[in-house]
Amino acid sequence: MGHVDCLSPLRPVLPWVPALYGRAAGPSGQLGIRRETLAVGNPAAPLVGLAEASGRVRVLIVRLSSFGSILHTVPAFFVLRRLCPGATVDWLVRRPYAGLVRQVRGLRTVWEVPGLSGWWTLRRPLKSIGYDWAIDFQGLGQSALWTWWSGAARRLGFRGQDLREPWARPFYNRFPPVDGSGDRGVHVIDRNVSLLRGLGYGAEELRNGLRALADPVVRRELFAPEPPDVEARVRASLPSGPFWVLQPGASRAWKQWSVEAYADLVRRVFARTGRPVLILWGPGEADRARAIAASAGEAWAAVAPSWGWGECAIVFREARVVVGPDTGMLHWADWVGTPVVMWVVRSGRWVTAERNGPYFTRARSRTLEVVRGSEPVEAVAEAATVFLEGLA
After folding, report:
1. Which residues of 298-326 are buried (b: 16+ CB within 10 A; e: fewer)?
2. Are the CB atoms for 92 and 62 separated by under 8 Å?
3. Alpha-carbon distance values, 378 to 153, 226, 390 (Å)
4. From start to end of 187-241, where are the E strands?
5. Torsion of CA 314, 315, 316, 322, to 10 degrees
């Protein structure tokens, strides 16, 4: 789901607001509400690293959406907690995505960004926490504004080509170097983790922290598990033999194929492997999933129940491969450790196969970079067949 740009009428004036009202650290290191003593947006300003900070440190992560992008930010949270276990970390997220963030272990508070009528009611309690650091992993004007509204003395953000919206820049006052700045070949997870350099950590420290997530058990333990009875119920509903999962939906229509193309894919894979498929669906997608299953004809296809993130993780651990576009569920399967066949619709410098494809299973998964409107059914069917026949 894309962000709602409700602030566009204010863009001409908003960039000047931080220069008039800001929060900075006092001489003793305590937060004080006063005019900014450091030049707002000055990357050369003196930096007190989080590793050198004494006492309780309060950090706010700002990543408002979407599901896949939130999953790409969780590794940065993991590395932060690993390097500074005494830090108190909160997360600010838009309400539709809060359920996933609440499953992340180790967060103290998950702040839900309300609708247009309630944004002012959140701003005051958010600022009352007295955050020492706020980190914007999104780079939009809206997320940058919330980073500033947090009242944090030190506000980290991207700059230059790494910003999604250039007008976000004045709301930050720390601009650490990030891996592959402007490079479309550097994965977004690596870029997000490298933003933590602004907390005073070295590049090698951050890489070592991220390496721990190569273990799927570590990744699994970072999210709250489903109760045993839920896991037993989900497993009982799965096919008895090898199967694959199709995730046809996506937040943007141009990432999706037609019903006919998906049905053709199911038929081709079944004809080559005889393996059944389980079709997932999200809000508003149930009818489309049923249409795909019905159109597939004699190929064995079942439409999944209404499952949440935890239940889908159980399914993914049993599936041979998960197939679909660059969307949250494919990245969730990658997090779980199941190989994926993913197509990424290239969109400017922001969306490429290298930057947005699978990360943890990239050595085993298959990623196709396609142009908008294309439906490479045969290429995807061939890739899925390799996994289902045990050749991958």
Report:
1. ebebebbeebebbbbbbbbeebbbbbbbb
2. yes
3. 53, 36, 19
4. none
5. -160
Which residues does 316 contact at the CB level (< 8 Å), separation at least 6? 245, 322, 332, 333, 336, 338
Non-local CB neighbours of 19 within 8 Å, separated by 6+ positions: 36, 40, 170
Domain residue ranges in the chain:
8-221, 229-388
Q: Is 56 exposed, middle or buried (0-12, 13-18, 19+ CB in 10 A)?
A: exposed
Judge if 8-221 and 229-388 fold alike in CATH terms: yes
Chain segment 213-259, per-residue pLDDT in tens: 999 999 999 999 999 999 999 999 999 899 999 999 998 888 999 99
| Joined tokens for residue 122 | 């959140």
Q: What's the CATH code, domain 8-221?
A: 3.40.50.2000
Residue pair 365/334 in contact by the 8 Å Cβ criterion? yes
Among all chains, which residue has been given the structure tokens 């940058």?
144
pTM over 0.90: no
**pLDDT for position 347:** 79
Let me know if domain 229-388 sits in CATH 3.40.50.720. no
pLDDT tens digits for range 2-53 = 443 444 434 443 444 444 333 333 333 332 222 232 333 333 333 445 655 5
